[in-house]
Specification:
With 125 residues, the chain is mostly helical. It is 52% helix and 0% strand.
Length: 125
Amino acid sequence: MPGRRVRRHFSQLRVFERGLIICMKNTGWSTHRVARQVDHSECAVRTGWEQWTRDGTHVRPTGSEATRKTTRREDRRIVRQALADPTLTRSTIQSDVGVPVVTQTISRCLSEANLQSKRLFVYCL
């Protein structure tokens, strides 16, 4: 149709646009009218409004929301054990920590401390 703007379907809403959506919906505008005004799909407007009513915020959450299972003290203990005896396996360190963690957590702690597994270099002639 001539004169009709093409909506940006797959772009994310900016913070300003999210604020506009909330203001317009609070004043009683319909989802269709708000979508036309901010030039986004009705689904994007509906999602932004639902987030506002559910969470009370229009800002997108950052991070993975995953919480750490070990404290800084436990991380230091893991690193200290690995430095004291380099032949210890991850499962041995895991049982010594005293906190129910998986071996991937042990690996993450060691890699954050720049301690990677070392392999013997075999020189072949």
